[in-house]
Structures are given as structure tokens and as C-alpha cells.
Design goal:
The structure holds two protein chains of two kinds.
Chain A (H helix, E strand, L loop, with lengths): L4 H8 L6 E2 L2 E2 L10 E7 L5 H7 L10 H8 E5 L8 H14 L3 E5 L2 E2 L8 E5 L2 E4 H10 L3 E5 L1 H5 L12 E2 L1 H5 L4 E3 L6 H12 L13 H4 L3 H4 L32 H4 L38 H17 L1
Parallel strand pairs in A: 3-4, 3-5, 5-9, 9-11
Antiparallel strand pairs in A: 1-2, 6-10, 7-8
Chain B lengths: L2 E5 L9 E10 L2 E11 L5 H5 L7 H6 L6 H16 L5 H27 L24 H29 L8 E2 L2 E2 L5 H32 L13 E3 L2 E3 L7 E3 L2 E3 L14 E4 L34 E4 L8 H7 L9 H25 L15 E10 L2 E10 L2 E8 L1 H5 L11 H6 L11 H9 L4 H6 L24
Antiparallel strand pairs in B: 1-2, 2-3, 4-5, 6-9, 7-8, 10-11, 12-13, 13-14
Helix pairs in contact in B: 4-5, 4-8, 5-6, 6-8, 7-8
The chains are: A alpha/beta, B alpha+beta.
Amino acid sequence: MQVSRRQFLSLLGASSAAVVAGLPLKSFALPAGAMKVIWLQGAGCTGCSVSFLNRIAPTAPHSVDEVLLDIVELSFHTTVMAAAGDQAVSAAEAVYAQGGYLLVVEGGVPTAFGGATCWAWTRNGVDVTFKDVVTRYASKAAGIVCVGNCSSFGGIPAAPPNPTGVKSVRAATGKKTINIPGCPAHPDWLIWVIAQTLAGANIALDVLGRPIELYGTTVHDQCWRNGMEHATEFGQDNLCLLGLGCKGPETYAPCPVSMWNGSANWCVDANAPCIGCTEPTFPIGRPVSVPAGGGDDEDDDHEDEDDDERRNER
Amino acid sequence: MATVKVLDPISRIEGHLKIEVSIDTVRGLQQVVDARATGTLFRGFETILQGRSPLDAPDITQRICGVCPVSHGMAAVVTLDRAAGIAVPENGRILRNLVLAANFIQSHILHFYHLAALDYVDGPNQAPWQPSWKTDKRVSGAAANALVGNYVAALAMRRKAHEMGALFGGRLPHPPTYRAGGITATPRPERIDAYRAYLNELIPFIQNVYLNDVNTVASVYSDYFRIGKGHGNLLAYGVFDLDSTGEEKLLNRGRWVNGRRDVLRVDVGSITEQVRYSWYDDRTANLNPASGVTTPQYPKRGAYSWLKSPRYQSIPYEVGPLARMWVNGDYSNGISVLDRHAARALECLKVAEAAMGWLDEIVPDAPVIAPYEVPDSASAYGLTEAARGALGHWLNIRNGRIENYQVITPTCWNASPRDGNGRRGPLEQALVGTPIKNQAEPIEVLRVIHSFDPCLSCAVHVMRPKKEAQVFTVAMGSGPAACRP
């Protein structure tokens, strides 16, 4: 038994999406001319996919089902797709052959040992590395979007000593990418980028490939708690967390504005210092967690050098 | 002559899994006669943790897996609490439980509807629900429409469960509030009310929709109460401490051996990891994780997986919701594909209802976290449960830094390769005997795999190559790309 898209929509009582982030999207509604999306997962944790499922917004697409039914044709995504094995690989290859798809990459690209620490799939009896698939699929994509810190900058798998030689997609493929870092990335940030791309907008990027519209201001500058008295220990409400190691001043992200999980909360408002997860230095800089009173100075100096090196590498 | 069928990628799981099954006809029935499970990804988290502040462990280990980050956070903070001998304030214990409960609920709903259901019903007529295998989709007509409709309703429900968890977790996935000594979030009255309001929506959904849909599938696939049993040994570390000692839990620690009558106690020292069929040096076999060593070796004769084989007194055990509910005395119908789904759904309800009670135990304005000082040197472990089964972290601190960190994940138990005695891992064993209608579309294999809710990022990404042994060699041109550490 198959449910047609029309029946499916009537089951949901879903209306078709009209506007995303202020942009008319009607012409992009499925099935006619929907942009095909291939979403590849490499050295990552699937957290950005799970975060994507958490989309909820007052404007269309209100939630992830509307994204999938009305806005993009998600041709390949191993966590959600029905197909497995050869059938799944063939679905990706068919879209690749046509070209012009949007390539979304989650997870970094292991390059050590020929990329053999991460296989994408088996094709005709041969294991194919993620590195090979990303490189090949990047060549015919209409655009490449890196969702999360790992594909954008390498992320935790690339932290010292980077056991598997993980690189960002940009470094591994030499292609221009739109980076949406965050560990995980916020669903609204990704959907904003998809909407802009579908509308053919020219997205202004900073030197790290991040959309300036989203990542132009530090967390600290947008934080409600900026200017409040400083917390001296954990578990205190409504105080600035700078003394507890908050990385808000050096972290560019709209978290205080977008908040998380349908505005249920966000890190600082749960009294948890910003850990800088949208930055290429994550998690290299100061310890992700520092004891009350801050880290020790000697370490900070040492790790700042690491930060510079890491920025230069990428 | 058996046909060997390779399924790679296995979709609708977390992470990268390759399954190789041999299919043959035995006594007139085409079925799986052998199976091998291979995890194909390695990140090296344990190496990355070495030398860092122990306080980094909760945030970093959560990133092992985006589906069960809260469980890694819990295992890490429990390990740190124990390393320093810290007593966590009651509010800290309760709020940690509430965030973890929220993630259990979201994970179980996600698993049944979005990862498993498409093995039983065909989805909408577009990507990512098509293409799909059409073999043996028995849920049809109005029942199929309802199930697919609930697939979408469940997307909203699992999202709301995450919003509920974010009230005290800060955000999900990867909540930043889990810290050694307690939790950073406070139980503001408006957040307690909001959590309760979410539960008031989720509990009826679990009762009236989720459980009902499991029944719908069970009614037309009743043969799956006899498929996928496996070894029949069940292990649970237990989870959701009900007092500050951790002695009382909502779901207790224990193990059950196939054919025995009583639930047996768990001695952590009896857990070892075998490597006979794993790409690790045989001299590191049978070590307890407290003194675990990971020395990769590739190529290695007969080996086929990056997963080690965790065993309890040398015996393979299945972990997961069925194991938990079984040792807790909450479920005893049987061990099979459908029993796993049923136990998972019933556990989802049990956890949600318990969380409602925990909200009333919160003491307003009482502390949520105790001051924590990293010990100069200590060894400790922390046992908890992820939605998909038993999870343990083992830590050595030296000079205030992480000297060694070992993780044994639920999927390492379930998807492990054969051990030194040649016994298959639980998932491999469960696949053997599975009837196959159509070799070209072995949907039955997916049903067995998905019933375990495997999470391969967890299982494989934590492998730790020894620094001095870090010399992967790529053997190209001789078949599949291969590597050795």
C-alpha cells in the first residue's frame, strides 16, 4: 500500500509552505522542480540530523515534515531513508549522475590512511570511502552546505591529536562551502541557508565560510546576561557566566536570539557557559569545561597557540 | 550453496553498519544461515580525551553520539562524581534524571516510527520514503494510512520530548548542563510547569498511539514473536537513580541467562573485552575496561570488525529496553523482534510516568550542584543506560588530567563480532534462522537489525589506537580499501 503525497498531506492537515524566512517558496513546492538534496554523513555523530528534526517555527516550513514534503527532495540521508544497501546507493548515484543537487555534509572527512577509517557504502562489492564519495559528489553539486562543526571545521574528531586526520569539507575537496557550524547546528540556521539557496540569493560569508547574517555577532554581545553581575559558582540563575569560563565573547552565533528547541531554553539561560561550539577552535581552546575561578594561565597561553595553528591549518 | 548478501549501508540507524548474511534453504525454508556485523567507522575519542581536563569528559563524550548524548553525559558525570567521592544534591539527581528521561522518550518514539516502522509499512510516494523494498509489507489500507499519519505525528512528539529535556538540559541534543557534582540548571517553577505540560501531551500519545501502533504491527506480523531471539542472555546496568546512593533505581541492574530462572547480580569485574575476530592484538584479549588496552592490528587473520566483543564471564549478552524491562520484572513475554519493540514502548510509558512523579520531588530553591574539585589521581567508572542499552565509562586521572578513558557502548555489546570461543555477537546470532522471502529484498534482515536499535557511532567511534601503533596502512588495489593501525 502506498500513500500518495496528496493523501499524505490530507492525513496531516498540512498546508503547503508559502514563505520561508520571508522568501516566496511556492515555485519550489514539490513535486515540480524541487531541489534534490543529498545528505552525507562522515566522521560525525548524527547530532546535526537529530537537531534538524527539531525544527519548529512560526513561519513555514513550520516543522521538518513540511521541509521534506514541500520544499526539498531528500534523495539520500541514511538515517531517515527507507532504502538500504544497493537500493540506497543507487538512489544517490542517480541524483549524482544528473548533477545540480544540493550537497549537505554532516561530519568531517577522515584523510589519514587513505580515508579508510570511514566508509560510505559498498558498491559492486567494493567498500567506498567517505572521502572519495564527498570529493566526487562535491564536483557536481549546485552548492555545498556543511552542517555542524565537524564538516565545517573538523570539530571534535579533528581535536588533537586528530587520530584519523579529519579535515573540513572545504579543506578536503578544495570547494567553496557554506558553513553552518555548531555542535549541533541549529535547525533554523540550516533551513535559512536552504531557503536562501532555493531563492538564488547570494549569501554573504565571513572568512570562515559562515553566513554573516547568522554569525556576524558574538554570543556575548547578544546575551541577555551581558552586564549582569558575574556568577561565582555553578547553578546560579540570571548572572553573567564570564567568571565560569563562558566563551560567549569569542563565539560568533545567534544562540541568544534563536535560542534552542523551540525557544524552550539555551545554554546560558540554563546557567551553562557557552562552549564556543560554532568556532573552528572548538574543542581545542581553553578546556570545554573550566572549574569555577577559571582555567590556569599557563595552559591558556599554550592553547592559544594551538588555536592559531588550527585556524591557519584550515 | 548459500548466497552471500552484503547490506551496506544499513539505513535508519545511527552511524555506519555493514551486514553480511549467508542465505540458504534449510528443510525447505529459505533463511539466514550465518551473519557477520561490521562497523566501518573510527574516530578515536579515547585518544582525544587523553591529557585533557577530566571536566571536559561530559561535553566531549556526549559528541560520541547525537542520538544518546545525554546517556554519555550521565555516564561521564557519574564517573566524575565517583572519582571525587562527591554526593550530588537531590535536585541535581532529579534534574539529571528528567533530562535523561526526556531523551529516552524521544529516542524510543524516533526509533519505532522513523527508524523501524518503514520495515512494515510503505511510506509516502516520494523521497526519502522511496525507493523502498515492497516485499512483505503487510500493514495496508486504513491501518497503513493511520500508521503513516502517526509517523508524522511522532515527528512532533519526539521534537516536544526534546523541548521538554531542554528545559533543564539547556538544549538537545548535546545538553551543556551536565557537570560533575550535579547540574547547572535550576528548577524554576515555570520550567517545572512546562515539563509537566509536555508530559501531559506525551503520555497520552505513548498510551493511545505508540502502544496501539506496536499492537497493530504485532497483530499482522505475529511470526516476529518467534524471529530474532538470539542467545537469549540479557544484561542491564540499570538507570534512573531514585536516591542519592544509587542503590534504588527505576530500572534495576541485573542479568538473565537463557534457560535460568532467576535474575542474577552484575559484578563489573566480570566484564571483559575479547578481540579474536576484531582488528586488535590478541595479546589484549580478556581485559577488564578498567585496565583496557586497544592495540589495533590489521590485517589480522579471521578478523572482520573494528568492534571488540564485550562479554560477561565470557558469555555474550544482549542489552537494551527488553533486557532492562526483563531484569526489572516488567516484561516476560519472550525474546524476539516484536518483544523488543513491545518492551521498548512499555518502557517509554514507564519512564514518562515516573518523570511525572519526580517533578513533585523537586525541592524549590535547594542546590542543584555541589562544588567539585578534580582529584589529583583517581580511578572510577560510571554505569548507566542509553535508550538502546547498557553504557559504561571507565576513567583514570593522573596529575589532575585524564590518563585513560574507556567506553563500552550498548551497540558494542549487541553488534559485536564472534568471541574467542567462536560465539557470534547477539545481533549476529539473532539473524541466524531468519526466514527470507525474496533474496533481492531481504527486508526480514532489516527488521531483526532495527529491533536492536543499533547506534554505530557509539560503538565504533570510540576505538583508541595506541599512539605508538598508529600506522594504518592502506591496502589499495587488492579488493576493498582496507586499513591497519
